[in-house]
Amino acid sequence: MVMVKLHRRSGASAFAMKTASSHSTSPTVVVCPGNGCNQIRQSNWYGRLHSILTEQHGIECVCESFPDPLHARRDLWVPHMRSIAEKQGDPRNIVLVGHSSGAQAALRYAEQYQVHGVVLVSATYTDLGDAHERASGYYPQPKAGGGESNPYLFEEMRKNCKNWRQFHSDDDPFIPLGEAERIRDGLELTDAYCMLPRRSHFFEHAQELLDAVLSLC
Hints:
By secondary structure, the chain is an alpha/beta fold. The protein is built from seven helices and nine strands; from the N terminus they run ββαβαβαβαββαβαβα.
């Protein structure tokens, strides 16, 4: 997806509880942007999240521009994310915060690699019939005889990451709510899924998102 309240299923600050980590040090947060972001810290809420985490909470955060920012191809982004993880000491001790195309990359990363936590923002299941999105390589494709090619490996994702958070809005102009719900159901999320009304495609900072990230650190 081009990137230039909690109407939760349970009560008010679902992510206030801190998730226990098996690691001796706090995880590093890695911001995975939507496509079209040439200067990541000037795009959407990414730079603000980085500043809050590093300056106010002392949490390590990697917020750097990704290669191939327009097309966000899986064969470039997932290896790039792995190279970031491997520079952090224990590559498993990271939290991926993926927005839009970055959420798709985070899903596919978690198919292959262990990770402490993943926060999905505005994720979709299909390419929504968009050829440009289809070419990125993230999305399952229907087979003529039924079933899918390039399926999501949800079981592997759940094995590799035990801590998931997912956000979507009911008025996202690009991704219908049903798309996010298919991701939710594949990951078997319940209280970790949040539909926040009237947030569009999450172009602005959201306190609920910050709280979710902090709960994983």
